[in-house]
Amino acid sequence: MSGWFGREGAPGWPATLSSGTDPVVTLRPMEVSDIGAWREARRRSAAWLTPWDATAPPGSPSKPVSFRALVRRLRRSAAQGTTLPFAIDVDGRFAGQLTVNNIVRGSAQFASIGYWIDRDFAGRGVMPRAVAMAIDHCFGPVGLHRIEIAIRPENSNSLRVVEKLGIREVGYAPRYLHIDGAWRDHRLYGITQEEAPGGVVARLEQS
Hints:
With 207 residues, the chain is an alpha+beta fold. The protein is built from six helices and eight strands. α4 (126-139) links the parallel β5 and β6. The longest helix is centred in the middle third of the chain and has 14 residues, at 126-139. The model is unreliable at 1-8 (pLDDT under 50).
């Protein structure tokens, strides 16, 4: 996998992580070849995902981005060490995305995680395991110290993910992100290396 960006990647990237469980959950770099499966997942789950999708604030210079342009942008960010853009596969089928965003080095060693899953794969424990795998990877080869997840108070499915992983709430951020056409409040959850010495996957399996 090394050289996926034409040069050595940032610490811990590129990477492919697999759960080895039933179902088998795999995190791997997003590829342009995912376009068909990505479009179908987004189409099938549109009504379910739209309330939680990021949107451009009024007056923003942002414009619709093609899937290929999105993957190219993610690749550049990954090569710069600021993003880890994972596709989620379940038993070899594309099932969603998980992105480690806003990686900050220096004295912070911090990042945030965002994710979405095809509704057809929901309710099978896929997302808690994918998030746990990503956090363990961040605390391991990537060398980060703290991970944060921001969740809208109304997003009960996502709140169950952090609950299952034992990630504690650390704050509340009014009008934190522009989601589904408006600035939305978010509950903030955080975890540090010291809070999961045996790993978050192990914690999940013991729960």
